[in-house]
Amino acid sequence: MPAGKIVAVAKNYEDHRKEMAGREGGPGETRVGVPQTPPQVFLKPASCLLADGGILRIPPGVTNVQWETELAVIIGDTINQATEEEAMGRVLGYAVFLDMTARDLQAEAKRAGMPWSLSKGMDGFGPISDVVIATQAPPWDKMELRLLVNGEVRQRSLTSAMIHSVPRVLAHVSRFMTLERGDIVATGTPAGVGPVKKGDTLEAELLGQSRVRVTVE
């Protein structure tokens, strides 16, 4: 099945939100209970996808590429103006996804008040595992993400720690943007993001379900 668009959620884990607020000089306050603000989303092109065993090549002049390990939701049928229950009924399956980010370019764009799509959308900036069919996988909030960099655990989190749930994200996005078969929704990363260097091996996992392993050049 050909991939469609990639809709990604920003800062959807409290520990990562505070992590980034600290780095960016923000207040870092803690959110309690159901968030009042909607999920914040951005797009990545399908051309960024990279399969298991692939080579992630850092473009010349890019100096700070960082990993973000995420649960990806693969859409199996059209979702438009859907309730949370309807949206979940149209999920094909799940995968583990690396939302690679050129943090140097992203920071420059933010300072200039400009879009930062390029920092997220470069070729290879979306390593993704094989899909686990939803009927054969645990519920979305009963899975665990893990990232190993050169064999060392750098990120690990339960998916239940998301601020905005998968059903809420899908229903919200479908109010404004039709999700189609083959689309990918990347649901945000927990704390522990960090920079890669040439020669690194990244191995992201949905523990017990699926994994993707790539090498940086």
Task: Describe this structure in a few short sentences.
The protein has 217 residues and is of the alpha+beta class. It is built from five helices and 15 strands.
Keyphrases for this structure?
Fumarylacetoacetate hydrolase, domain 2, 217 residues, alpha+beta, five-stranded mixed beta sheet
Amino- and carboxy-terminal Cα gap: 28 Å
Globally, the shape reads globular
Structural class category: alpha+beta
Count of individual helical segments: 5
- The third-level CATH topology is Fumarylacetoacetate hydrolase, domain 2
Strand count, sense and closure of the main sheet? 6 strands, mixed
Strand content: 25-35%
Strand order of the largest sheet: 2-1-13-6-7-10
Q: In the CATH hierarchy, what is the class?
A: Alpha Beta
CATH architecture classification name: Alpha-Beta Complex
Number of beta-strand segments? 15
Mean pLDDT: 93
Tally the structural domains. 1
Helical content, roughly? 10-25%
The helix/strand order is: EHEEEEEHEEHHEEEEHEEE
Q: CATH superfamily, please?
A: Fumarylacetoacetase-like, C-terminal domain
What is the alpha-carbon Rg in Å? 16 Å
Low-confidence stretches: 26-33
